[in-house]
């Protein structure tokens, strides 16, 4: 098989026979991964957007929705992320923040 020659990729050659010659015991094996949950610190995530409002909620009309309303999380605390589960209420009370969900609404016909 010919080597690939280009200014971006040089000295690369793939040969199926050289791949097959690898000793099965020398191949990398997948190690089990541990799950690690990382939570954001309790601090405001909305430093300066519409701070005069109790809760910043934006609505966007979308014609191609199967439901009339879908709420997306913007506080990153939702247990059903990316969908909103109301976790912003607890977050707002703990931090004094005013973040709310992004609402996708199907326009009335």
Short description:
The chain has helices spanning 16-20, 87-95; strands at 56-61, 69-72, 99-105. The chain is an alpha+beta fold and 109 residues long. Mean pLDDT is 78; it is low at 1-16.
What does this structure look like?
The protein is an alpha+beta fold and 109 residues long. Helices cover 13% and strands 16% of the residues. The longest helix has 9 residues. The N and C termini lie far apart (62 Å). The N terminus is likely disordered.
Secondary-structure topology with pairs:
Blueprint: H1 16-20, E1 56-61, E2 69-72, H2 87-95, E3 99-105
Secondary-structure class: alpha+beta
Q: Which percent range fits the helix content?
A: 10-25%
Mean pLDDT: 78
The order of strands across the largest sheet is: 1-3-2
What is the total tally of β strands? 3
Let me know the largest β-sheet. 3 strands, mixed
The number of helical elements comes to 2
C-alpha Rg (nearest Å) = 25 Å
Q: Estimate what percentage of residues fall within beta strands.
A: 15-25%
